[in-house]
């Protein structure tokens, strides 16, 4: 039962005719900037503490990546994902990973209808705009890879039929770094599929008290109003893709990523996929700042969340207290920042 993959109904981004550069006119990013500022405010009205967390999450969403959230229970990981989904008026699917979860529990199954004598596809929880995969390291490698296939391809194949996943499509997978017993830690190849990894961390005292105040009488999440919608987010993601990155900025990204491959403290450096994702995420940051071109600053801001989870330290480095994060910081310090020419800011 092979069928052609259904198209999502969303046209590929079109930016002018042949030969025309993707140069947004003045004000082209105004709607994106204004909307994303409102989304950020909405998310931060629910999730307290951790400045910058909402920005990175939204950059990953706009850059069409996926997010790995590593933290202990109860710090607001699920709340963060739900707050983003609600503010962009999108559907959330929730998957609690367990060792006995099967790939079909994620993707869906074909059910035989005795009345019509036909198979009917019942979609699983991946058919959502924002998929929260809780404790991904508790699932078997087979089920993990089913999710990763969805992340990479934006589609899933069940019994030979390919089904397109909705857009926007953001997987927020969580891992508890403390309780590792009986788990299947994500292999490097699979961690590499996540655009960024963040930790939420404990809020500071005043943020935690603010959380108590806000949740004393009501649940802020339940009252969160959408400030935009899915189709707008898809449009913004297209604008982000078309944002200008100069040759100097691209060289900077590649220089930074390549430096991880030569570092003596690393057993495994970052892949070319990391370069791609770093540039895409940097474009999203630039767009949210209302800039029509990427600056090295955007790249630096994202270097830790985009690169650290892909690096494997040598045993000696780990024992001497080096962390992937400190190593990324060191490389950011060391890699020469290109001096941008005026031409780097605009294509002509
Ligand atoms: N930083 C935070 N901001 C707002 N609420 C939080 C925060 N951390 C925890 N909470 C609250 O604690 C509870 C558990 O949060 P949840 O998102 O389910 O945690 P996790 O998914 O990390 O286990 C929720 O009621 C949530 O509102
Ligand atoms: Mg949770």
UniProtKB/TrEMBL annotation:
One of its GO terms (molecular function) is ATP hydrolysis activity. Coiled coil: none annotated. Gene3D superfamilies: Magnesium chelatase subunit I, C-Terminal domain, P-loop containing nucleotide triphosphate hydrolases. InterPro entries: ATPase_AAA-3 (IPR011703), CbbQ/NirQ/NorQ/GpvN (IPR050764), ChlI/MoxR_AAA_lid (IPR041628), P-loop_NTPase (IPR027417). Residues 1-28 are annotated as: Disordered. Residues 259-330 form the ChlI/MoxR AAA lid domain. Residues 66-195 form the ATPase AAA-3 domain. PANTHER family: METHANOL DEHYDROGENASE REGULATOR (PTHR42759:SF5), MOXR FAMILY PROTEIN (PTHR42759). This is MoxR-like ATPase.
């Amino acid at each position: 039962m092979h069928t052609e993959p259904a198209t999502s109904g969303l046209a590929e981004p079109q930016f002018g005719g042949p030969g025309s550069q993707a140069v947004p006119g003045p004000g082209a990013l105004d709607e994106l900037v204004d909307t994303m500022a409102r989304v950020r405010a909405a998310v931060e009205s629910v999730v307290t503490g951790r400045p910058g967390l909402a920005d990175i999450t939204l950059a990953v969403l706009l850059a069409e990546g996926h997010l790995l959230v590593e933290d202990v229970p109860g710090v607001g990981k699920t709340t963060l994902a739900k707050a983003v989904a609600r503010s962009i008026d999108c559907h959330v699917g929730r998957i609690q990973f367990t060792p006995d979860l099967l790939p079909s529990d994620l993707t869906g199954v074909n059910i035989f209808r005795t009345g019509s004598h036909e198979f009917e596809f019942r979609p699983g929880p991946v058919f959502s705009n924002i998929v929260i995969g809780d404790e991904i390291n508790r699932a078997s490698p087979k089920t993990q890879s089913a999710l990763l296939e969805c992340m990479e391809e934006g589609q899933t194949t069940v019994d030979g039929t390919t089904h397109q996943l909705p857009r926007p499509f953001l997987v927020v997978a969580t891992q508890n770094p403390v309780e590792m017993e009986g788990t299947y830690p994500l292999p490097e190849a699979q961690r590499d599929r996540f655009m960024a990894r963040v930790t939420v961390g404990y809020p500071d005292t005043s943020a935690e008290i603010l959380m108590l105040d806000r949740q004393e009488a009501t649940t802020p999440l339940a009252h969160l109003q959408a400030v935009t919608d899915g189709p707008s987010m898809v449009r913004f993601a297209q604008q982000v893709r078309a944002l200008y990155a100069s040759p100097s900025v691209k060289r900077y990204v590649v220089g930074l990523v390549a430096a991880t491959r030569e570092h003596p403290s690393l057993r495994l450096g970052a892949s070319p996929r990391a370069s791609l994702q770093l540039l895409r995420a940097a474009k999203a940051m630039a767009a949210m700042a209302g800039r029509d071109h990427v600056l090295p600053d955007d790249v630096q801001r994202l270097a830790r969340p985009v690169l650290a989870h892909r690096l494997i330290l040598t045993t000696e480095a780990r024992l001497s207290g080096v962390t992937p994060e400190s190593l990324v910081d060191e490389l950011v310090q060391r890699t020469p920042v290109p001096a941008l020419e005026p031409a780097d800011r605009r294509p002509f």
